Amino acid sequence: MKKLVLLVVLLGSLASADEAASPFAAVEVAPGIYQLGNTNEGFALNVPEDFVGGGVGLLVGDEYVVLIDDVMEPTAPALLAKVEEIAGRPVDFVINTHAHGDHVGGNVYVSNSGAIIVSHDKLRSRMEADPKLNTGPGALPVITFSDEMTFHVNGEEAHVFHVANAHTDGDAVIHFRNANVIAAGDISFRGLFPFIDLDSGGSVAGYKAAMQRLIDISDDETKFITGHGPVGTRADIETDLAMLSDAEARVKALLDKGMGEEEIVAANPLAEYNDEYSWFFITTERMTRTLIRSLTTD
Predict the structure, then answer these.
(1) Bridge partners of 94?
(2) For the chain, percent of residues with pLDDT exceeding 70
(3) Residue 201 in contact with residue 125, Cβ under 8 Å?
(4) DSSP-based three-state secondary structure for 22
């Protein structure tokens, strides 16, 4: 009897250890709709070691399980374990929001489990041409769209639409109209300097326009599943857009004075935002250089 009790305690301890070791946490933003991400409080991204991939959206219902993005290849198995813990069954559909490895790295895993992957046309094209993303059978989306499409699942109307030349040239946003939830992908780096991938068709002007579109289709009660950072609100998106617009204006003012890139970086025009918005991937200096490049090449 004592051996049985000891075995039960040991197994329970191991299960608790496995659960504690999961790098993913989930926040239910509306009934059956979740944001998954780093286990840190508020999905904080303080150090690179905490990073498990981009923010993930999850829709769970009686009909289908829909995943929005699937993180990096190394952390994808842990993500799918978390999804099955919540949903109780495998994923049916995955919607990729853009072609970066921290959002599409798990495609092979989910497709091998039977999921159908959906994306914008340009996302598939970029993945197809990049061996780091096109990692084998199942990596590429099998259904693509050029402008918009709608999923009618679990009593929810999920409107998927393209925002042009924003974070990349193949960005998709998912608007759960009934639930008043928007999965923004990397159009929202909540409270963080955004990565605007100028080398993959992104642009500062397009990024700001995409943020404004999110604001225009939302209201004060809308919840945002973000590409990085915690769950957001319309007010949060407005705050982050105001920061980006002001940051661009500060850099432009120095360019208009004839200052060169290194002079501007040394002047640190974004110092006011450093403490709140700078993070390990997009530091204040990197954001400044992105804005300089954008303003001098657009």
Answers:
(1) 67, 117
(2) 92
(3) no
(4) coil
